[in-house]
Amino acid sequence: MRHAKAEQVGPTDHQRALTPRGLEDAAAAGRWLAAEGIVAQAALVSAATRTRETWGALSDAAGWSLEAAFDEGLYAAGPETALDLVRAVADDTGVLVLLGHNPTMAYLAQMLDDGDGDPEALAAMAASGYPTSALSVFEVDAPWADLGVATARLTAFHVGRGA
Predict the structure, then answer these.
(1) What are the sequence ranges of the domains in the chain?
(2) Separation between Cα atoms, residue 73 and residue 45, nearest integer Å
(3) Is the pTM above the cut of 0.85?
(4) For residue 127, what is the enclosing H or E element?
(5) Three-state secondary-structure class, residue 126
(6) So what's the architecture of 13-159 in CATH?
(7) Residue 6 carries which DSSP code?
(8) Would you say 5 and 50 are in contact if contact means Cβ atoms under 8 Å apart?
(9) In 126-155, which positions are buried (b, 16+ CB within 10 angstroms) versus exposed (e)?
(10) Is the separation of the CB atoms in 142 and 151 below 8 Å?
(11) 93-142 per-position pLDDT tens digit
(12) Which pLDDT tens digit goes with each residue over 56-85?
């Protein structure tokens, strides 16, 4: 998932906070995940303010009490580094939320897709430009350590937008 809409400026880029719209969009994404029956078992979240705030609104709206792992490295990670972080997740983790920044999240979603998933989700993801609050849901049939290019099936794509 890409973080929700953030302020254009902050004391530093790392400290940019979500806008009111961003908070509502993240909550809308959480409500969508709950409606889809998706329950996170682990979360790897960039340590930036906007991703922390996205996680808070998302997880609250989804009804999750899960503690996220906030990772400083995910803030500036490229897609290969983000993939390495996912590969280090415990094999007994069934559902993982990865929450970070663009262009990394968009590139990673494209890299992981094996082309055999939901055609409507794939078309929506490709056409979207991966805006703020975009999330891609994948099925993975291998241990996290074996995750690589074209090893996951896209099952859903959604952009959280509040009322």
Answers:
(1) 13-159
(2) 10
(3) yes
(4) helix 119-128
(5) helix
(6) 3-Layer(aba) Sandwich (3.40)
(7) B
(8) no
(9) eeeebebbbbbbbebeeebeebeeeebbbe
(10) yes
(11) 999 999 999 999 999 999 999 999 999 999 999 999 999 999 999 999 99
(12) 999 999 999 999 999 999 999 999 999 999
